[in-house]
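In this supplementary section we document a worked example of the pipeline. Step one takes a protein sequence of length 315 as its only input; no multiple sequence alignment statistics are reported here. Step two produces a three-dimensional model, which step three serialises into structure tokens for compact storage. The input and output of this example are shown verbatim.
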Amino acid sequence: MTPSAQVPSPNFEHLRVLEPLLADLGTLAERYVRDDPNTALLKLRQFGEALARFLAARGGLPESQGSEQVERLATLRRAGLLPDNVWQLLTTIRRTGNQANHQFTGEAEEALTLLQYAWIIGIWLMQTLHDPQFPRGEFVLPQPGPDPQQLQALLLAAEQARQEAEAKLAQVQTVTPQTATALIQAAKQAAQSVELSEAQTRALIDDQLREAGWEADTRHFTYEAGTRPEEGRNLAISEWPCEGGRADYVLFIGLQAVGSWRPSARTSRCMVPSNRPGATVALSIWKDMPPQAALGAFTACRSYFLPTGGRTCRN
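The serialised model returned by step three reads:
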């Protein structure tokens, strides 16, 4: 029995049949997520990197020396081996892991969300490479971390698995076009079963907004929590009051609202508080549009304003 098998993870142990390193890294991230979220995020970044290299090898793509994870993911995506929704999950894990590494950041809630992303990706991988009918099941919340001896055993097992994985990657098998085509189709089919909760989707959109230059955090930057537009900040404020409900996000450049993000409706009336200047545009700004582009869209849309308390620009 391997050291890691002594404390099997209900969320990642099934990956051992494909690649032990993935099972071990997922298990380590799970063990650290409560007490040391920064380390959990680093392990999740390693999980994403190992998965990308493993998938590239199975797809017959050469391993380029010194390749960055962003390049690996782009290559896999172009080859059709990484569907867009799975690519986005791995991209979020990469970005957040990089930030944790360079800025020593990490919160338990954030680490738990990314751990769930890794679990979802693992299910997709099992359905792609092992069994199309592999059951998704339910994510099991991590229990309190293991004792120091168990953790040391996990670390040793992961290092051994890493060395073995490196040896296998050095012997990439040639893949025939027929095999590659079947693998691409399997990846695409399995991606159709990927499902995210509302909270997981919001965290994903937060990451895309931040990458585009917005300050976004759907857990903290909410109308109910008192977040309001400020001069000199590009804020994405969630749950902003609108006629008929609330917008998922309203985007503000300084005090000026330039767009709303409400996927469930084509238009909305988003009310700006009377003590704040500016008007809100019910324009479904694409979530990765940078602030300056959003401002340009706002300017182009002004002719459609309606003279209401919360001005509206229709799609």
